[in-house]
Amino acid sequence: MCIAISLLRAREATMRLFKPYVDAEGLTLPQWRVIRALAEDGAADASALAEQCAVLPPSLSRMIAALSERGLLDVAREGDDGRRRLIRLTDAGAAVFARVSPKSEAAYRKLEAVEAVLQE
After folding, report:
1. Which of 35, 62, 81, 89 has the fewest CB neighbours in a 10 Å radius?
2. For the chain, the helix, strand and coil percentages under 3-state DSSP, each to the nearest 5
3. Can you give the pLDDT at residue 98?
């Protein structure tokens, strides 16, 4: 089996751990990554957030718009020309993170347990 297919299968197996509870909140997995990153870092500009979340900038722009419409994100223009966007969670976004985070942490513990077995 080629390495690309093996990596795709590993990614799919990993995402299956997170998908049920992310879906229950009406989020996509990339949207969850954005919410998680903002919860951990407080705020970020769009380019740093795209890099951190492994999301293409045009996709991130659509996610920011969708999550802002839902009241989960706040976007403030900054800088002299107002082109830099600083993104942060709203109280509603923080509440989503608080509901999903314990389930996410449990999924990460499962992954770490598998990793520990593989390293033996």
Report:
1. 81
2. 70, 10, 15
3. 96
pTM for the structure as a whole? 0.83
Which structure tokens are listed for 81?
A: 């020309």
| Closest by Cα among 86, 103, 113, 109 to 32 | 103
Question: Quick one: 72 exposed, middle or buried, by C-beta within 10 A (0-12, 13-18, 19+)?
Answer: buried
pLDDT band with cut points at 50, 70 and 90 for residue 1:
low
Per-residue model confidence as pLDDT tens digits over 97-106: 999 999 888 8
**Measured CA distances, 31 to 26, 27, 34, 84 (Å):** 10, 6, 5, 20
Pairwise CA distance, residues 75 & 78, whole Å:
10
- Rounded Cα distance between 72 and 80, Å, is 26
